[in-house]
Amino acid sequence: MIRLFITRHGQTEWNLEKRFQGSKDSLLTELGEKQAGMLRDRLASQNFDLIYSSHLQRAYRTAEIIKDNREIKIIKDKALSEMKLGDWEGLKYDDVIEKYSKEYDLFWNKPHLFETTSGEGYSELKKRVIGSLKRIIRENDEKNILIVTHTIVIKQIMAYFEKRPLEKLWDLPYIHPTSLSLIEIDDEKTNVKLHGDISHLENNVKEIC
């Protein structure tokens, strides 16, 4: 059996400023580092064979904090990076709503109808993310794997395991910073044990971002 522990990076400066990040990057805030530390403490007794992380710094730094001083290899995987958002990257949410109101609505409420000319579509995202996921599963039978990545990537992975269509991609739960999902795969049988769990976070660090 392979066990996949999947988490999102901690809060970033651009999360706090309500900016779209996508393939661009911003540093973890003090709160983001604290969130990662809480997940580290939760997983301290869990043995991991490997950690796979998005190459973006916000995810890799989160992986480093969770790893702590343990001898676990962190593998950077560009296929686990966040959805490329093109012209939206770096813009505040309000600015995107003003300039791209129709696309913004489709992005969140009707993802199966969303199209972009400057970024990455949901179908492109699914192809690279699920391709990477299948490779990780294929290469790591009987191992415990931690994956540190991003909101839309996690939404796509969980939709894949739960067999949800694209139009339901944004169904709850919300993927909070350092929320934890756990999937156990035994041959062809898949069991979703956790999905977006934040029981390790104190009340004052559960801000949505």
UniProtKB/TrEMBL annotation:
- What's the superkingdom here? Bacteria
Give the keywords, sorted: Glycolysis, Isomerase
- The residues responsible for catalysis, as annotated, are 9, 82
Any one cellular component term from GO for this entry?
A: cytoplasm
Sorted alphabetically, which SUPFAM superfamilies does this protein's record hold? Answer: Phosphoglycerate mutase-like (SSF53254)
The record lists substrate as bound by 8-15, 58
The name under which this protein is listed is: Probable phosphoglycerate mutase
* Lineage, opening ranks: Bacteria, Bacillati, Bacillota, Clostridia, Peptostreptococcales
